[in-house]
Amino acid sequence: MQLIGERGVNSLNDQPDRYKMVAMFLLVVGHDQMIQERVQHSGETVSIHFHHVLIACLKLAMDIIKPKDPTFTDINPKIREDDRYWPYFKNCIGAIDGTHVPCIVRSKEQIKYIGRKGFTSQNIMVVCDWDMCFTFVWPGWEGTAHDARIFDQALRRQNLNFPRPPSSKYYLVDSGYPTMMGYLGPYKGERHHLPDFKRNSSFRNPNEPFNFFHSSLPCTIERTFGVSKNRFSILRSMPYFKFDTQIHLFTTTMAIHNFIRRRSSTDKEFNYYANEDITAEIEEGDGPSGIPLEMLDKSSTIMEALRDRIRDEIIEKYYHV
User: Fold this and answer.
1) Are 184 and 167 in contact (CB under 8 A)?
2) What is the pTM of this model?
3) Using CB atoms within 10 A of its CB, is residue 28 exposed (0-12), middle (13-18) or buried (19+)?
4) Tens-digit pLDDT profile for residues 191-223
5) Alpha-carbon distance 213 to 84, whole Å?
């Protein structure tokens, strides 16, 4: 409450009213879109308070949706303390993926927003660290936009402050992204999703062990999506807000997500999805077929060699092939 207040809600002198405003906002995004009867206020009053808090939370997002360690010096315990990932992925700083969130758009714009999910959606690029926090989000893209196209634009637009990996560090990406310098993808043309390996755990060739380990680690991003979409019902069923407001709502909920993660060690949603025995919903990526040709040209032989080296080390330790 104090952090949100510092960013705009403290314009009200009465502290109980500030708490009420934040409570109304959280009810809308987390539980109930029609709350007039619950809070005994008109729809107009609820809307005014809602947008007031929304603006304050957007200011919070600028401070909290970013890497805790901007130099990426420290190795996350998830990597350092797990034999599945250490030392193979010691320089891996996070994962990049896209997620689709339902949206409401005008009839004449619906076609370009109906993506692979079959409903109108925003395709949102996110970057996660291994603590299940968002370090970058870029909402607002139409549902038909390919993940690699959004990624390419994120790299080009300096004003977005995309947290680029420093030299020798890298992000994990799926097959819908190019394996370029600083971004390590799986072997394409092979199984690389965890459900595929659960159906048949036998590896068919030397590349699949790497893909298995590679997919196990980015599953953190699917669990992070799971926490947010389970906590914030508005991400599952978007009401009739202006599209700009829908964009801001996603950013705002991600800021609240990070705030909870960094302030609470007993949150039930995070504790539930941190359990690796829980199967998080896997969003099928766009795949390599739609990667823009200009991005395919950026594929890095250095990253491909790193992938081969990690593959060989995994096979030597676990499979003795």
Assistant:
1) no
2) 0.86
3) buried
4) 777 777 777 777 888 898 899 888 888 788 888
5) 7
pLDDT, tens only, 215-270: 888 788 888 998 999 899 888 888 888 999 999 999 999 999 999 999 888 898 88
How far is CA 92 from each of CA 21, 235, 244, 256, rounded to the nearest angstrom?
Answer: 40, 29, 34, 25
Token readout for 192 is 């690389």
What pLDDT digit, counting tens, does each position of 86-119 carry? 999 999 999 999 999 999 999 999 999 998 778 9
Token code pair at residue 37? 């009867």
Going edge to edge, which strands form the sheet with 134-142? Answer: 134-142, 121-128, 92-102, 170-172, 183-184
Find residue 138's DSSP bridge partners.
125
Residue 21 pLDDT > 90? no
Give the pLDDT score at 257: 93
CA nearest 183: which of 204, 162, 197?
Answer: 162
